[in-house]
Amino acid sequence: MSNGFPETKTLSLPDLERDVLRWWDDERIFERCVAEREHAPGFSFYEGPPTANGRPGIHHVLSRTITD
User: Fold this and answer.
1) 31 versus 57: which is more confidently predicted?
2) Based on the number of CB atoms within 10 Å of its own CB, is 68 exposed (0-12), middle (13-18) or buried (19 or more)?
3) What pTM, to 2 d.p., does this model score?
């Protein structure tokens, strides 16, 4: 059964990352994103507690510090 995606036998993640970064540079993606929001209202992301009813467990703290 075909899933619609081409199968690859070799995958180089460093090459893929370089290609994506080159595309961002060539297309000036970051600059365009900033320019499109120049006169838009500001917004902020707030990270709330992982539980609605209490302090986070140590496993929440560890996973955020080790993985980030």
Assistant:
1) 31
2) exposed
3) 0.49
